[in-house]
Here is the input.
Amino acid sequence: MNFPILSSLILLPTIGAIFLFFTKDNKGNNLTAKYVSLFTSIVNFLISIYLWVSFDQTTSNFQFIEDRTWIEGFVNYKVGIDGISILFIILTTFITPLCIISVNNTVKTRLRDFLIAILIMESFMIGVFCALDLVVFYLFFEAGLIPMFLIIGIWGGPKRVYSAFKFFLYTLLGSVLMLVAIISIYWISGTTDVIKLYDLGIDTKYQNLLWLAFFSSFAVKTPMWPVHTWLPDAHVEAPTAGSVLLAAILLKMAGYGFIRFSLGLFPDASEIFTPLVYTLSVIAIVFTSLIALMQEDMKKLIAYSSVAHMGFVTLGIFTIQQQGIEGSIIQMISHGLVSAALFLCVGVVYDRMHSRLISSYGGIVTIIPKYSILFMLFTLAALGLPGTSGFVGEFLILMGAFKDNFLVAVIASLGVILGAAYMLWLYKRVVFGKLINTELKSMVDLNKSEYFILICLAIPTLFFGIYPDPLINTIEVSVNDLINMYNINLNNK
Here is the structure.
């Protein structure tokens, strides 16, 4: 089939955004803007499902490849997918329409502009997961900063400008080094084509510096300890839909980068720096979990829990074990669903009470029971309860870690206990207890759109927790091939 399906996936949200741009921005037109953006994102989701159905799971080769000359003799627009990238594309196309539905309750001003930013963001995020050229990857990777910066800076809370600039500068500074590394790779190898670079390999004497340059960008974006401080600030100030996109997809771009480039291009350096990644991951898991226990702001607590969960992800990736890497990918997909749901749950009560402080709530189980049940489900998924998708990812990561480094695995296991502590402590204080704040009695339960969004997130969380085979079958061959290629490159040196 010659139809450019990946380019369609990348371009369709932007076409929807351009259409919105040329419509008049007024109150009566809000409905048009919502419907156009929602229709665009749903069509994109259906295309990605077709992609998954058409995908050949028996091969590790890249599929649906499109290769066009962009800058003669230097950069090709090259996109393609394998078992690793397809799941992230589906996660992106699944989360985006839910974000668009959620704006009904959260965004009161300049709705059209907000929806334009979300659609453009979707294009860039899909581009990241499809890119098979380092320059194309970098452009998509960095371009995603701009709409996110605007989402936080325009529609955020009281300290939105500070948080937006902190987010932008942190992530940009890390990525400048990656750009230098990409230029260096071009001078060393004469190409920025990822598939060619896999075949050629990169000279060992350059790998360490190049690995560190890529690491600086991915570590900030993940975020890893100690460059994680921008994330709680960004989450607290971002509108609910912004927090969902940030937690569900933006953080996954870095995890994907570690798998695709750090392991794929720099195996020798990855082997050398694995102890560094282990150390930072374990600190992130334990330290940020302890900080999460101390939080009084619901959003901040969930933001710190994201840092801890991504610590598990980086740990699993660098075990270079089948279970570890598969667990990391499933953990990223699961965290995308669960963290999106948790931020939406916070958004629900914030819209009603205009407070994110845990102390403002308590005893709401009798007033809003539907909300309390769904919030409990996502709380249990976040702490990795068996039967939820969160358990599958964490279990596989810890299995991979035990195979590679017993001590690291034992310390990381503490993170599971601490995760249970801060999530249950949050739930207890918000939902159970005495109804001290009498204003809470006026709260109404989930409306139709909120209920629909949370149910849409609950179904895959439970389904993949009970039956993770569709995810494992999709990624298994690609992960196995990546590990084999990694080991062959190591042994050849």
